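Q: Here's a chain of 163 amino acids. Please give me its 3D structure as C-alpha cells.
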Amino acid sequence: MATPSNTVLPQIEPLTEDDFHAVLLVCLGNLYRRHGQARVAEWLGVSKRHLRNIEAGTAPAPHRLFNMLCHDPEALDPIDREYGTRRVSRDAVCTSDPVASRMAALLAHIITIEHEHSDGGADATMNELLSLPVDDLRTIARVTAGWVERIDAYRHGKPKAVA
C-alpha cells in the first residue's frame, strides 16, 4: 500500500546513536542550568564523575532517563521534539477540549477530595481545594454561568439569539 503524500502526521525518522546523544546533551545542559549538576547526578542515580562519562558518550539506562521526569516534567522535551512527540500527563485536559471534558476531569478530582477517607472527609481542606485546577474551575464557572443566563432569559420570555 502506497503512503499518501499528504499525511497528517509528521514523518518521524529514527535517530542515530550519535544524534540521540547530542539531544541527550541538550537535555542535560538544560537540567544543569535549571537545577545544577549535583542534583541531576542525584536524579540519575550516578556520581558527578559518571556524568562526565555520559557527556563523553556513555548512555544512562533508559529507566534513569525517565526517572528524571519525576523531578522535572520538561527533562526530556528536546528528545520528544526530535521524535515529533509531546509528553503530557495521562489526565491532562487540553484547553481546546469541550467543557464537558474539563468537567469530567474536575468531577473525578472532586470525588477524590470529598471521599470519606480523604484528608478532610466530605469537607474539603484548604490543601485539597488548592489542588484543584483553578483555570478549569474558572472556565467551567464562566461557561455554566452563560448557560444559566441563557436559560433564565428563555424562561423569562427574552430569548437571546443563538450563534
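Q: Can you summarize the key feature?
A: The mean pLDDT is 86.
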